[in-house]
Amino acid sequence: MPSNVPAVLVGLIVATYWARVVRLMGKIRRKAGHSANVVPPGALGWFTRGLWFPVVFLWILIPLVGPFVDGRVWVLRPVYWLPIVGWIAFVVAAVSLVLTWICWKQMGSSWRMGIDPEEKTLLIVSGPYAYVRHPIYALSSVLMIATVVAEPAPLMIGVAVVHLVLLQIEARREEGYLSRVHGKPYVDYCRRVGRFIPCRRS
């Protein structure tokens, strides 16, 4: 039995999240003929993915493996452990996955992992996107924070910092791209709707 059951359950949620992302990539490849811009064109796209791929791997691995070895490997040794806090983190992670699934459905065939400057997709501003410009990124941030709370090991904290910074960079890159592609409608949308926190301004 692992020392931290909630962390393992959160790890399974994270693995389910990324398994769904891989499946979405396959669907986009079949429909659009490309790999959903997994590695966006340009040096910055390659650089961010070069960081993100190992981050995702560790994000899945640490909560699944850490509870079994946390007493022997210092970078996997939690800095605190409160069972109730771990279970709350598990519930938050599960809710984040469900809400992200709704966002994926809302995006439909417009979902992409990265930006291709030569491609124009539909501008989605309804459903969750009526309240948050980047609900998937916002929920990914919540899921990452829940993972850290459930498995607060030094390595997990470092992974979280890198992931959260990369999400901030990616969100701003996407906004620049969408402003160029969609022009005033998107700029007006940005004025009305918050980036990561639900907000509707008239």
Brief rundown of the structure:
This protein has 202 residues and is mostly helical. It has helices at 5-32, 43-69, 83-107, 135-150, 154-182, 184-192.
Written overview of the protein:
The longest helix is centred in the last third of the chain and has 29 residues, at 154-182. This protein is elongated. It is built from 6 helices and no strands. It has a single domain, classed as Up-down Bundle (Four Helix Bundle (Hemerythrin (Met), subunit A)), CATH 1.20.120.1630. The relative contact order is 0.16. The chain has helices at residues 5-32, 43-69, 83-107, 135-150, 154-182, 184-192. The protein is an all-alpha fold. α1 (5-32) runs antiparallel to α2 (43-69), α1 (5-32) runs parallel beside α3 and α2 packs antiparallel against α5. The mean pLDDT is 85.
List the helices and strands and how they pair.
Blueprint (H helix, E strand, L loop, with lengths): L4 H28 L10 H27 L13 H25 L27 H16 L3 H29 L1 H9 L10
Helix pairs in contact: 1-2, 1-3, 1-4, 2-5, 3-4, 4-5
Largest sheet: none
Count of DSSP H/I helices: 6
Shape summary: elongated
Assign the CATH class.
Answer: Mainly Alpha
Poorly predicted residue ranges:
none
Supply the number of structural domains. Answer: 1
As an assembly, this protein is single chain
In percent, how much strand structure appears in the residues?
under 5%
- The gyration radius over C-alpha positions equals 18 Å
Global structural class:
mainly alpha
Q: What's the CATH architecture name?
A: Up-down Bundle
Give helix % range: 55-70%
Distance between the termini: 53 Å
Under CATH, the topology can be stated as Four Helix Bundle (Hemerythrin (Met), subunit A)
Mean pLDDT: 85
